[in-house]
Every structure is written in structure tokens, then in C-alpha cells.
Amino acid sequence: xxxxxxxxxxxxxxxxxxxxxxxxxxxxxxxxxxxxxxxxxxxxxxxxxxxxxxxxxxxxxxxxxxxxxxxxxxxxxxxxxxxxxxxxxxxxxxxxxxxxxxxxxxxxxxxxxxxxxxxxxxxxxxxxxxxxxxxxxxxxxxxxxxxxxxxxxxxxxxxxxxxxxxxxxxxxxxxxxxxxxxxxxxxxxxxxxxxxxxxxxxxxxxxxxxxxxxxxxxxxxxxxxxxxxxxxxxxxxxxxxxxxxxxxxxxxxxxxxxxxxxxxxxxxxxxxxxxxxxxxxxxxxxxxxxxxxxxxxxxxxxxxxxxxxxxxxxxxxxxxxxxxxxxxxxxxxxxxxxxxxxxxxxxxxxxxxxxxxxxxxxxxxxxxxxxxxxxxxxxxxxxxxxxxxxxxxxxxxxxxxxxxxxxxxxxxxxxxxxxxxxxxxxxxxxxxxxxxxxxxxxxxxxxxxxxxxxxxxxxxxxxxxxxxxxxxxxxxxxxxxxxxxxxxxxxxxxxxxxxxxxxxxxxxxxxxxxxxxxxxxxxxxxxxxxxxxxxxxxxxxxxxxxxxxxxxxxxxxxxxxxxxxxxxxxxxxxxxxxxxxxxxxxxxxxxxxxxxxxxxxxxxxxxxxxxx
Length: 612
Prior knowledge:
Blueprint: H1 3-11, E1 23-24, E2 30-35, E3 43-48, E4 56-57, E5 65-70, E6 76-81, E7 90-95, E8 103-104, E9 114-119, E10 125-132, E11 139-149, E12 155-160, E13 170-171, E14 177-182, E15 191-196, E16 203-206, E17 214-218, E18 224-230, E19 235-241, E20 248-251, E21 258-262, E22 269-276, E23 279-286, E24 292-295, E25 301-307, E26 313-319, E27 322-329, E28 340-341, E29 360-365, E30 371-377, E31 385-390, H2 404-411, E32 414-420, H3 429-433, H4 435-438, H5 443-457, E33 466-471, H6 473-484, E34 492-496, H7 502-508, H8 514-521, H9 529-534, E35 547-553, H10 562-573, E36 579-583, H11 593-611
Parallel strand pairs: 31-32, 31-33, 33-34, 34-35, 35-36
Antiparallel strand pairs: 1-2, 2-3, 3-4, 5-6, 6-7, 7-8, 9-10, 10-11, 11-12, 13-14, 14-15, 15-16, 17-18, 18-19, 19-20, 21-22, 22-23, 23-24, 25-26, 26-27, 27-28, 29-30, 30-32
Helix pairs in contact: 1-2
């Protein structure tokens, strides 16, 4: 297949983001999801869980539109849409009976950020979190929990954080109580609070230490809560009853790496999702006796989502050679060959699985002996160079998942290493928390360097023909590499929406996510100024010897364009040659199809030149 045809195929292959799981309606009859690459921007689709009909498009716009939640009657969904990636979303209701009609629930282009959005069972209230002052309407660091009343449009503040930070409002199915979380005690911690729908009895219910995180999900009965809490070196899972005092722990095993757990509607068992070396392992957990049944798809990753009225299950299924799919499967016999696709994704593409590169395991030891794992993708012919693709977060991990950008690199003759450096999820709590020992710009960057050295030693990569790219923290790591590593290790870097000056980034980022920087770096800029300086690539641009391509979204509220404007001044001061590519209609990442086409072609051209 010609390169342009292959890229066309990749950019028209519908994709579900691995963090935007599909959602099953409360009655179990429908499943909805957000699809990329079916139009100029992301849109929301729905399909019956019995597989009787193909997907129906619910939204069709030129702006990214994401699924938020189902309405209680299972007849509509709540979706959010921002403008060119600025993350200031407006919420809409879309009826299954009237697809493509977006009914506004909140105002357009707000001056604050909304998180979530759940319709009350009476359907006259909408519950969400927003960093908006209830009286002045101004944007704040702190986030409020709101009950938005449709009659008159009044927003009733039910609760608020004492210290700024991201949070969500989780309303139980009966509409009586809301769970939300705070990090008032320490940026690295998370405590769960409970408030009534009328704003009464706002109080803390789960606190396992000021630096420990706890997560909570409602049981469908609205009386019980599934609790996932950090212990010393792992997370334990338990159940708590509304009004009770103690959590009854069900899984309390240091060898387990539980990432998430929930109880689907129509089920009294919990779905437990954990990761082993970057791959998903799921199970069904009996909440009474602790009996657990593990689910394995034999190949690929399968996450059970919910049961259907006819006894089957709906799941999210994916791998590097399997586009994210929503499937029907038999709980007792989850064999991929027997899955029934609800998205019918393979009918929408000319690509075949064999035209996609598989994710191979690649392992090495870092400078301190820490064991690091990543994914290696290789072309079918002799490689012309190697690209290190660094994931964002950093508290995220690259899964065995179809990444169009990586696949295009491979199709153009590049090896691609996708490393899960320290700080990544999916490798145990100590591994995830080890990034906090140094903070950003510490040994996690050495994990990347030693991974490259391991590739060279194995004869897979050639010194001087290695580039690096990534978005967000991957962009920061690309900046770090080009300013700190020798040209033999990284000859070219293409940071996408990456931080350059950590003080500027802290001061200009969304106010509700600043505590994440405090957690990762070890304090505020005025508390640890030396660390903010030492870990900011902008102060080391004079060391750049290789090729540099700077990529930025013009509306990015997370890593703002100020990062680029300031580093460009420093580059000019030191006479450093660079290239620049800005997408004015993008935010924190490049997502629109035509912009991705421009980006992927430019990246390949850039790395080809650097590796020649």
C-alpha cells in the first residue's frame, strides 16, 4: 500500500481512546462511546447491546465531542464539547430518538472548567464539578460541587474544596448523595467526601493518610460504595455501607496491582481491572464471599463493562492489531473468535490486522537497576532509524493498543520504542510512586536513555539515528533529551505540547490542576525553586546539538503556548536552529484528522532528515 494510502487508512480507521471507556446504559440495552477518525473531530455513537443494528451516530460536528454519561431513563446521553481544544466545555443532552440534535444544558464557552455531568433521576437537576465561584462566576483554583437546576438555571453550590484541585461529582443512582474527592491535606493525597443532594452533611468518609490516594465508586443500590485505597505498597479493595463506620476489605493482597474497580448496573459483583506488565487482567469479584473469577481474552485486552438483559456481557476489547472495539461475549467462554462486534469497526476500514505492527515486549535495567518495560514496534524491512515515543502523564502507561501515529512511523521504516518509564501506572504502586523520589526530570529520564542504549546494544537501533517525540510529559521528555543527552543517543526531538519552563507552566496552566505539579515536583515554585530551575529544559537549550521541531496547540490550557514563546526567545539568544509547527485550532494534543495528517507527514520528514 502506498504511504499516502496507508495514512488515509489509518486516519479513517475509527478509534476509541483507551482512557475513554464505552458506557452501557442503565437498562443494559445500549452502549455509547466516543469515536475518533469518523469525521473532522471526535463524535459520539450508540449501538444496541444485542448486536441487532449497526452503530448510530449521535453527534456530527467540527469540534471534539465526548461522551459524559447516560440519563437515568437510558433514552439519552450527556455529552461535552469545547472549542478547538480549550477544555472549557459546554454540556448537551442528545436523545437516542433524535440523533444529531444537541440540546444545551450549560452555557457555551464558559470562563471555567466543568468536570463530569450526571442527570438527577427527577431529570430537573444536573450535578457536576466546576472551578467557578457561585456568586461572582469567576474562575478559581478550588472546585465546587454544583446542583444545576434547569428551572431558572440556578446553580446551587453543595460543597467545595479547601485547597484547589481537580475533582469529580459522583451521584448515586437514587439521587440522594454525592461522592467527591479532595486533596486538602497534601497534593499527593486524596480523601473521599460525601454530601447530600440538598447540600447537607458534607463530611469526610475515607482518609487513609494525607499522602495516600483513595478512590470510590457507587454500587448500583446507592447504599454501598466500592473503595480502592492505597496501602504501603499496593491498593486494597473493599466495600462500605452508607452510614457505616468501617470498610470491609475484600482484596488485601500486596502482590496485586488493582487499577480500577466498579459494580455495573444489573450486577452484584464487582469488575476488577489490574495490570500486569502493561497488559490488562480483569476479574469478577463476589462482594460477599470474595470469590473471584478471572477473565482472559487469550489475546488482546478485554475489560468487562456490564451485563445485557439476555445474559451476555459487553466489553471493551483492544490491542495494537485490534482497533478498540465494543463486543458481546460469553462470560464463561471469552474467546475472541466468538466475540460479536457492536461497533463493526472492521467493516469501516480496508486495513487488515497483518498490516498493523504488533507490540513486542522490550525490557532493560535502568541506571539504578530498576527493571523497565516498554513496547517495541518494528517494520517488516530494514529500519532506517528509531523513534522513541514517550507517553504523557507521567502517571499513565502506554498499553498494548493501536496507536495510529506509531503505526505510521513503522510503515515508513522506523523502529519505535514506547517505554513505560518509572512513574507509569500498570507496574505496581511502588513503581508508579518512584518518580516522586526525584521529581520530574529525575531518573525517569535515565530510564529513557538506558532504554535507547539497550536498543543500540541489541543491534536494533543505530547511534546517531534516533529521534524522540511525545505529547505533554512526552513533550517535556523530548525537550529534556535534546538538552541533556548526547547526539548519539537522541539526534532529533519533536516535543508536542511539552513543558519548557516549569515555573511558567505552573503559573499559566489550568488553576485546578496545579496541585499535580506540586505533587510531581515536590512543592510549589517558591518552596523548591532550585528544583523548578534545574528540571526546566529552557535553562539548558545552549546544549542542543541535534535537530529540533517544536509542535504546539494554540488553545492549550494545560501546557500553554507561553512555554513555546519563552523557549523560542532562549533558542534565539543562543543561536539554536529550530523548526516550529503550531495548530491554532488545537489544545493539549493534536486530534483533528487533517491536523494529524499534517503532523504525521511532517514528523516523518523531520526524522528522515535527522536519521539520514
